[in-house]
Amino acid sequence: MNETYDLRVGESHIEVHKFHGGTILLSLLIAVVLQSSLPVYISKAGILDLPLLITIYFGLSRRNPSTGLLLGTVIGVLQDSLSKTPLGLFGISKTIIGYLASSIGARLDTEHPAARFALTAAFFVLHQGIVILIQKLLLAQPQPWFTMRLLVACLVNATLGVFLYYFLDRFRKS
Amino acid sequence: MAGLPSRHRSLFLLIGVVLLQVLLLAVQIKRDSQGRLIRVWTVSAVSPVERSGAWGVGKIRDAWRHYFALSDTARQNEQLHRENGELKLEIMQLQGKSAEADRLAALLNFKQKQNKVPMVVARVIGSSADPNSNVLYIDQGQRDGIRKNMGVITPEGVVGKVMEAYRDASQVLVVTDRDSGVGAMIADSRIQSPVGGTGEPLLNMKYVGNDDEVAVGSRVVTSGMDRIFPKDLPVGIITQVKPGGQYKQIRVKPSANLEKLEEVIVLLTTDPVVLKQPASVDSGSAAPTKAPANSAPQPTSTANTAKPSDKRP
To answer: Which of A104, B23, B238, B264 is 20 to 30 A from B111 (CA-CA)?
Structure first.
């Protein structure tokens, strides 16, 4: 079985990547554990959203919307269960992000660092938008749409994403 | 589903999964439950990793300190005798542990002074996986007598309250969280008003009327009205006072160092308790309690469901 193959969309050829066994599961678990542990030792680390970065990366790489959305669901519900939020808040938002990342990954070449930075920033904003929308509509919790912290978090996460994705690329099957 | 093209299949799957989670949210809101089973599984799976992580980080810190001690000693004491070097190394090791010892001594001292109040010291092992909330995980749970809505403090002041108790770990809602709040009053004037979190490092004192005199630098202490925290426990210091529409806008800096919490004390009771006051707090608490006419009634702490009838099982 081929470990990488081409998706043909129009005239463009987009490569679908596979990973060494357990990479996705391990990355997912490490991201959730680090997300929950890091701020205890480095308070500023609370600004990171590692589960989101993992959802985006594997969505863009695997380029299969069904896998992407299910990965987003699992990682989102895990994040919910380690937070005070009701189960489903991050689950829904990361499900949608996983689906969109996979769909976009199947249409665009997302290997260039600039493209990855822009996509991560865009997905971060969209993710926050969905979270705030759910909090306003379903949970009746008023939240501001924009804060300076969100802008900083968006830039920091997008920058970290570029390096993290580069690191995770090493676990792809060639 | 099998007859659908792959593109539509994933779209239907997306709609299905999202709807399922919306339903899950709706059920949690309607039943006021928080999917405890899934949380118990996740926390049970993650807390041993976090506990090991906390242990590992402690060891790495020690090793790091020892390395510097060794290299420092080697550079400075090239000509000194071996015994002298070993003594210096020992001093460095002791210094490395002195900060932790000081903290533990303060906790022990506090616990001994309050020997009639049941409490347990716990270590912070994790925080919320949600970047927008201030929640901590501690390494003590139901097995140690911790129950929902118990107060969490340090000798410096209020930390938060137990949101959920699991078998070997508990989830603590920190006072700086948006959903958090504490029944409080200004120590000198005894003006009562709840203090709530904003999601930022400073707290808000919510319902102090524009006519009330409030000075920057005043101490804010617990009022005991929320039935979670004992009266006169330090909450914070007022750092900013501005006139507002109906109420003053008052910002309070928490007394406890909430960004560097490593150990906390959990009050093992949901019944009202009275703590023995240190000398510095007595002066404030001697004044009679004054509830200004325009002060809002003291809500119990936020997500505050503690009732007088809440007893430990």
So the answer is: B238
